[in-house]
């Protein structure tokens, strides 16, 4: 994986062709009247972030590193855009992740490099994203780290809400499929944890579906399932300059992100054969560093991080998989965490709901909880179950067993629910030292597919 440079990926105008245009500041002006572009509507990266230090303008058909031909946009994030590309040297499809110029991300590269060569015979090796190549690309906004990985499809969070069901509610995964997703995620965690890596961002959006037989498709065939125009109308400056679209630091058009989902008549992924892979290691790090986790999947020690200097470890990933499994099985949300009343109120609400769901909080948490005595008396008895200063939150205390019983799917027997409850109780222990590791969780009876004779039922 040799780092290299390439200056000719796609048609990019140069500053010399527009002498009247001043180089924009790397900082986006706070005053929207000073923004450069007219609004571009749609779910895509913000056009104002095409500036020095920001995104790299990419064009369909552009060639990167003299081998990766861009075919369509797969997605975007706060720090990068991701593209489907054809590797002309190896005759295969790859995902090309192009980071912003001001994001070096040596940590993500180091993690992926470590995992690409670590314990390749481990069953969890194939359950995590694999790095194929990396290089630097220099463009009008700076030098961008580019990561080349295998191509994956939609996330398990998006798979059951494909474009042709855009205005319908999500459907529920069969329990047999949830079992396989959880097992594959735990195998991936067992593999990366043994390499000293904590992911720190485990949730449904970072478990993507493997696409079988993709390399057998032609370039035109991999474009047959686009459900929106590939590109927007011209990107226009507010000052009227660059009437052909964009400017020297931005693309002429933006592209709609469209994962490889297939069509209603020919979906690319069959539920009974679904294989999920753990992706996006940008928020992770070694087990001695502080990872980041989305709100609903935060372990209690992550909630208390701002109150202590204690280091977190890989057990926060186990907690996240526990809550993800609970959500996928029940197709219901056990925690309501999205308040608009500030971080303290959200943290309080989270801890109060955990108290209801999993039982009393231990001293290791309560002694760090500054407002604990506003919710519990000196004997530990609860005196308030809604966040201080928040009047429109209605709390409905429910235990984990009660939540599972109320939302148990039709294809799950009561004895299987008991096995699942046993596994989740071990994964959702407050003290990380008491929480099971991935290897232990994988030995839980609920993950033994042969133990259950469940009737096959497709989601409605």
From TrEMBL:
Start and end residues of each stretch annotated as Disordered: 1-29
A GO BP entry: spliceosomal complex assembly
Biased composition annotated in UniProt, kind: Polar residues: 14-25
Pfam families attached to this UniProt entry: Pkinase
InterPro entries: Kinase-like_dom_sf (IPR011009), Prot_kinase_dom (IPR000719), Protein_kinase_ATP_BS (IPR017441), SRPK (IPR051334)
Keywords on record: ATP-binding, Kinase, Nucleotide-binding, Serine/threonine-protein kinase, Transferase
Enzyme Commission designation: 2.7.11.1
Domain Protein kinase as annotated: residue spans: 68-447
Swiss-Prot/TrEMBL catalytic activity: L-threonyl-[protein] + ATP = O-phospho-L-threonyl-[protein] + ADP + H(+); L-seryl-[protein] + ATP = O-phospho-L-seryl-[protein] + ADP + H(+)
Uppermost EC category: transferase
UniProt cross-references to SMART domains, sorted A to Z: S_TKc (SM00220)
SUPFAM superfamilies xrefs: Protein kinase-like (PK-like)
Record-listed ATP binding positions: 97
One Gene Ontology MF term: protein serine/threonine kinase activity
PANTHER family (alphabetical): PROTEIN KINASE DOMAIN-CONTAINING PROTEIN-RELATED
Name listed for the protein in its UniProt record: non-specific serine/threonine protein kinase
